[in-house]
């Protein structure tokens, strides 16, 4: 690959992958936006050129669910290291969750996060507000802030102290505002009963049985009932069960209820992941057995599940090596979304256009993000150039997250970002950042 000149950028001769299909084409970016896509585009005077012959050219990925731990938990991750990990995986836009210390539950705390991100994030960014019984009636006002991805509800206890467990308070949240509400859907009443009855010394292989299918199904059924009652759009995060997939198919609520899945629930399976990785594989909701994995894969292919979110949730190795259930739940993964999905293409259960649909475009539609997720005139000039010939084991030293581990180290993966472009500027090349951080707050449709 080569780059010459400056001012604008012409990505030349790659296989451009979009949600609707793929074709050999050039992409011309000028002034930060895509201006034209097509074969053999003329090079404007003074335009830099990036030779992408033989390469795959994707829109920048959008990760709608990451936990970058700042403020308060920077020993696990911070906005700068998390955003670099995102960029290293071709993620040019992310939405960060509110369960930091303190939790992002007020306009002042939200603005503090925005200020921390400016000048430090190498990808574009937005932040969720966390719902609580105390702020439930104010969220509709606060969600209009620039850079706000919307409202996040934890129906079940997970990492942090944000929790809205009862239907009355959830209904208050849903009646305050109009943007889609993202939900961690596990029934906290059942969770508390099951953890209270957990014998000492229970192995981590029991994690998917403690946080069982009924915990997820009961909560998601309650959530869909409340969405229908209030007319408020909801987004079910990290779907984990075949039964929830069946429920979404049966209820067929259309745009009222969308859903997301993590790569972990698509590529890991129980009990093997717990036997191999122990508490490193512990996340909420749990990775389950092959029946659930296969149902989730099919739902992603046919559109019942709309998008991919990494749920990037870093913890230190020392924390993760605590015994179950004291070990914190969460797996880092923002940097491995694209190579895992390209591995699915290699293995035959996804198409290239599916990757662009579920990892680049769909989250923009779910959350109303403007200018991201496709390579078409008017979109931001965010491009990920991948060499499909680069296949092999994931190496630990490639990962930028402060967590410093991944269950996928050693996996034979198919394709890694070679160059990442943000608004027409090359910002990542050959597994290293280029230049100063250029991330900006995302724009949303109101």
Describe the structure.
The protein is α/β, with parallel strands linked by helices and 446 residues long. It folds into two domains: 8-58 and 376-433, Urease, subunit C, domain 1 (Roll); 59-367, Metal-dependent hydrolases (TIM Barrel), CATH 3.20.20. Helices cover 29% and strands 23% of the residues. It has 14 helices and 17 strands. It has helices at 79-88, 107-117, 139-142, 167-175, 188-196, 207-210, 213-230, 242-251, 263-267, 272-277, 290-302, 317-320, 337-347, 352-367, and strands at 8-18, 21-30, 33-38, 48-51, 56-59, 61-66, 91-96, 124-130, 148-154, 181-184, 234-236, 257-261, 307-308, 383-393, 412-422, 425-429, 432-433. The strands form two sheets. Strands 1, 2, 3, 4, 5, 14, 15, 16 and 17 form a nine-stranded mixed beta sheet that branches. It has an eight-stranded parallel beta sheet with strand order 6-7-8-9-10-11-12-13. Strand 7 (91-96), helix 2 (107-117) and strand 8 form a beta-alpha-beta unit. Helix 4 (167-175) crosses helix 7 and helix 7 (213-230) runs parallel beside helix 8. The chain is globular. The two termini are 40 Å apart. The model is unreliable at 1-6 (pLDDT under 50).
């Amino acid at each position: 690959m080569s780059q010459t000149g400056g001012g604008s950028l012409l990505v030349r001769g790659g296989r451009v992958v979009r949600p609707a299909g793929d074709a050999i084409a050039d992409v011309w970016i000028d002034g930060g936006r895509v201006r034209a896509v097509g074969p053999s585009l003329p090079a404007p005077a003074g335009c830099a050129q990036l030779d992408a012959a033989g390469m795959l050219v994707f829109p920048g990925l959008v990760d709608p669910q990451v936990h970058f731990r700042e403020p308060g938990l920077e020993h696990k991750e911070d906005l700068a290291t998390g955003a670099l990990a995102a960029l290293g995986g071709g993620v040019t836009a992310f939405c960060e969750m509110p369960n930091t210390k303190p939790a992002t539950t007020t306009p002042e705390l939200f603005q503090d996060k925005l200020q921390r991100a400016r000048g430090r994030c190498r990808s574009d960014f937005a932040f969720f507000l966390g719902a609580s019984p105390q702020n439930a009636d104010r969220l509709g006002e606060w969600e209009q802030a620039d850079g706000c991805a919307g409202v996040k509800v934890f129906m079940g206890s997970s990492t942090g102290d944000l929790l809205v467990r009862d239907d009355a308070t959830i209904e208050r949240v849903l009646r305050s505002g109009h943007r889609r509400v993202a939900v961690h859907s596990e029934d906290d009443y059942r969770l508390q009963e099951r953890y209270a009855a957990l014998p000492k010394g229970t192995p981590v292989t029991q994690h998917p049985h403690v946080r069982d299918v009924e915990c997820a199904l009961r909560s998601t059924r309650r959530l869909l009932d409340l969405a229908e009652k209030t007319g408020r759009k909801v987004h079910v995060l990290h779907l984990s069960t075949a039964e929830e997939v069946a429920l979404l198919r049966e209820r067929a609520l259309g745009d009222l209820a969308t859903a997301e899945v993590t790569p972990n629930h698509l590529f890991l399976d129980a009990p093997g992941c717990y036997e191999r990785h122990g508490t490193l594989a512990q996340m909420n909701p749990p990775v389950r057995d092959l029946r659930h994995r296969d149902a989730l894969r099919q739902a992603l292919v046919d559109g019942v599940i709309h998008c991919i979110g990494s749920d990037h949730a870093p913890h230190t190795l020392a924390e993760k090596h605590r015994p179950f259930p004291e070990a914190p739940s969460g797996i880092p993964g923002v940097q491995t979304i694209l190579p895992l999905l390209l591995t699915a293409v290699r293995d035959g259960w996804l198409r290239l256009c599916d990757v662009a649909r579920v990892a680049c475009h769909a989250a923009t539609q779910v959350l109303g993000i403007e200018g991201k997720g496709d390579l078409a005139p008017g979109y931001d000039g965010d491009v990920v150039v991948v060499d499909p010939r680069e296949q092999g084991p994931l190496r630990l030293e490639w990962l930028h997250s402060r967590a410093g581990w991944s269950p996928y180290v050693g996996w034979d993966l198919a394709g890694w970002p070679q160059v990442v472009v943000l608004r027409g500027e090359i910002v990542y090349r050959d597994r290293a950042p280029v230049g100063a951080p250029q991330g900006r707050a995302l724009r949303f449709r109101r």
